[in-house]
Amino acid sequence: MNRVSVRILPVLIFLLFHVSKSEDEEVKRSLVGFMDKLAAGNVGRDQSWGWNMSSDPCNDKWIGVSCDTLSKSVKKVVLDELNLTGVLDIGFACKASSLSVLSLHSNNVVGSISEEIGNCKHLTHLYVSGNQISGHLPESLKQLSNLKRFDISNNNFSGEVPDISQISGLITFFAQNNQLTGEVPNLDFSHLLQLNISNNNFSGPIPDVKGRFSADSFSGNPGLCGELVSKPCPPTPPSKRKSNHSSIKRFFIYSGYAVLGLIVVLFVAFKLVSKMKPKDDKEAVETNTSRRSYKTSTTTSNESKIAENKSEYSISSVESGMALSSLVVLTSPTGQGLRFEDLLRAPAELLGKGKHGSLYKVMLDNGVTTLAVKRIKDWSVDSEEFKRRMKRLDQTRHPSVLPSVAFYCSQQEKLLVYEYQPNGSLFRLLHGSQSGQAFGWESRLNVAAIVGEALAFMHEELGEDGIAHGNLKSTNILFNQNMDPCISEYGLMVFQTQDLSFDFQSSKDALDHAAPTYGSFKADIYGFGVILLELLTGKPVHTNGIDLARWVHSVVTEEWTVEVFDKGLISQGASEERLLNLLQIALKCINPNPYERPNMNQVAVMISTLKDEEDRSSSHP
Predict the structure, then answer these.
(1) Which helix (H) or strand (E) holds 386?
(2) What single string gives the DSSP state of each residue in 329-354?
(3) Nearest one of 294, 153, 281 to 217, comparing CA atoms
(4) Which domains does the chain have, with CATH numbers?
(5) What ranges does the record give for the region Disordered, renumbered to this chain (predicted)?
(6) Spatial separation of the C-alpha atoms in residues 592 and 611, rounded to whole Å
(7) 37 known ligand binder
(8) Are 183 and 204 in contact (CB under 8 A)?
(9) Which is deepest, 180, 249, 313, 466, by most CB within 10 Å?
């Protein structure tokens, strides 16, 4: 038996290697076919271009191709302004399953976007502006759940735009100068940062765009109406269907009245019968109820004591005798079925302590489920305000803001439960044992763009509620299992002017005279600016008593600006121009005068533009 196994083993190894190579060859063959159709023989392609079966897209650096340094898979294809006049076959490109950026800006490509675009599951940026592409947009666009920027402007697209409202992360939609028809696309306008659908054939009312876009975004569509374009929409005529709907609605209303009347009659009858019962029965019921309450309180206290002995880091000491039903579970699927006694009994590991409380790692179901529990002490916000904030935050979701799973609050202290994020914080990534060595410029700019866009969304949605982050710093930027950044502990802290570091007195004086909510949002922007400085310099906020923001200002003032940047970024060949541009954005954010700081929406757009420039340039040799 062993002899047979030994003979088969080399065959299995050969087959495994052969299959792996075949998959690579298939992707390469598809990419070569993609370029063959695009170039159509009119572009002089020498060996330096690559894009042939005798070379490798990553190792031999095909023109316009960027690869993931670890997996050696194609991440970006940027072929802007290369006078390509062939046919777009998106199916070939999507064979590269890890493709995140496809840009064919300013060529003369023809063809259409086929349904196979849905296979590009990781696509975040699609730019095909300035070509001759035509046809309808495919329904499979809605499958691109990671799409952030979509630019099909200056082409010949026609037909209606499919419903892509489920793409929650979309922040740019450019479709101007086409022949698109139907109603205005169904988009998440509260999330969108850039929109232009001018010079098409859209018709009907312009939806509520949350005041984010002007009439210019919709001009050149004679069939559009609404307040934004100063053209009233015609009244909608009543239909038979609507009439039938109204009749059904009236039926249910009258039925409801009848049921309500019956309930009132039964209630009055019940009260009359209750008064006729002997008083002794009532006292007996009250006595039994009292005994049950005492028993519940005792059980709770005993369970707390048991949990206290379970772990030296146990969170069970939060309050003896707290009601088991006091944990409020929110809408996150992770929290379904979670009970307070589960948290009390579970082993917990203390991750850290700060001036605002302690953070624990709690393992449930024998380690199957891992949660992070934030225990907050000495917070001035009362319980009712805390509950209001938590429930409002639960209604405001963004994929890059870590949602609460559950919460508990009393007058003494409060608990917040989150999903545990396994890859640590931005602070650890930048200043830990690796000191940011494996954290290149492109990754840092990506973090800045994602966090900035998420913070802009939260500020926009929660501005009227006055709920800012309140404690934004690099330790509160966490990485999930895919190494995507997300903001944690949003809305947990109330802004305090004492938390500001650089030019403390002038900032404090200015904010003391501002509305509290205004100050809290401006403090978030300051905190984000400091995070940008950490990304650029690789230095922590405080080093040997030196404040990072103050140090950066002093170096810039002495015109030694390049000395600010992390030496590792310079050695990796990061563009000094874009480093300087991001530094300018950071300096705007930490302006000592809060009134002169930009809002987060403006900051997000500036960083997004910078990232687009980086995406376009990084793929050119």
Answers:
(1) helix 383-395
(2) E-S-GGGTT--HHHHHHS-EEEEEEE
(3) 153
(4) 25-229 (3.80.10.10), 328-419 (3.30.200.20), 424-497+515-618 (1.10.510.10)
(5) 280-309
(6) 26
(7) no
(8) yes
(9) 180
